[in-house]
Predict the structure.
Amino acid sequence: MLYSDKVMDHFNNPRNVGVIDDADGIGEVGNPVCGDIMKITLKIDDDTIEDIKFQTLGCGAAIATSSIVTEMARGMSLEDAVAITKKQVAEELGGLPPAKMHCSVLATDGLKVAVDDYLVKHGREPIAGEVKSADPNFDPHADEDDHDHDEACEL
Amino acid sequence: MDTPRRIYFDYAATTPVDKRVMDAMMPYFMEEYGNANSLYALGRDAYRALEDARERFAKGIGATHPNEITFTGCGTESDNAALLGITARKSPKGGHVIVSKFEHHAILEPAHLLEKRGYEVTYLGPREDGIIHVEDLVAALRDDTVLVSIMHGNNEIGTIQPIKELAAAAHQRGALFHTDGAQTLGKIPFDVAELGVDAASFSGHKIYGPKGVGALYLKRGTPFEPQILGGGQESKKRSGTQNVPGVVGFTKALELMLEDQAEESPRLAALREKLTSGVIERLENTEQSTDVDPAHRMPNIASLLIKGVEGEAMLLQLDNLGIAVSTGSACSSGSLEPSHVLLSIGCPPEIAHGSLRVSMGRFTTETDVDYFLEVLPPIVERLRSMSPVYDRMFGSSAR
């Protein structure tokens, strides 16, 4: 399993790490049992993402996908931001190993939850649709991704 | 980041070939290249080298007869052959088999295959101390138990199992006993007669020998159905032209391990203690994966739980600094489950994701340990500072 140079760059030098004080929208997805948790905070003005920060507990791919999604979403309209797909995230990073595709789901889901959080707080309808990994019982095994389970543990 | 040095802390995964091993192997590639089964001089010379190695290998593990040693292609093959070969001959129509929950996959996978073939398999759990307790095995044994397989030293948490007592318990109920000795051979005393086992598996590359060679000890009279069929080499127990350079190298490697064991084992145990206590002193919310007495730990394996970080992220950051370690995190393995070994000792998944295995060996120095202790804390602190839940989960007090 190999990470692309861009994944390693975002893992080693993650962009936009932190928490926005007085954030307009907050999204936290994943759970510690699965090993990955991501939190996104947004500053929103005129339905546009003015500022975005993340915190992630997780593997190299989880941190890299979180980092890149903050770069992708900054300056986007809320509608465009929730439309970012896991595939676009992976492509933007120069690809992800098949077993790591679920990490990019976490990143897009975190963003979606944060956007909906903002909308609901302002009495508006959520636009992101169902977000599986926001469920504390989220099971990545049940995900219908093209996971590759063939790599055996090397220990 | 530049790489100031390269420190290998993954000797439990594999080891470099020792130069003395390499030198012993070299003649058998281009000069003494004969097939050990050929009758002419070249073949006879290879045969002599092979049988000489077999005799020395047998002596090295305390076997009575050289033909109790079957050379194989790797430790995994030996494990597979032991489980499948012994059951197939002793009880071809099924029966009960016991393996521990924290065996290597080379045992667990053939155990699953046995279930498909109609055998009943009990997966015996260790206790929290990382040890398979004799009374737990006694409770699991049945009149129809054919075979018990429990590893000698666990490859992840480094605990040493009481094989002598476990084997005796199995024998009392008429079951045969196999142990996977891949991690312990040469590192701590391993004597098949003293341990009283019927079968044992070994691997060359774990002891500064070459990859691609293993051995299976089968005590005389142990029922065994060959699993690799062909020309009937290895007394018909394992067909295939013998890997003479590999076998010669493996045997030389074993002898070197035994020569050094009395000094090397305490040297590594002291480094392990320094490393573990050093990490725990420098980093809050860290502990060893088990608190078993050091006497039951392999000298070369430090197994740590660094809470609130994910193991793969830690591994990659250490790799940036030239340090090679292992983790039981799900993300490092390509599967989504954390280490089955850590789960088997009751470690919660969220903690198992932050496990770190540091395994040391012949070329590990105290300077390496000092360097590790210097660079690990900032890596962990940085990753914890990036976590949305560290303060919430571990902020005020440990687990």
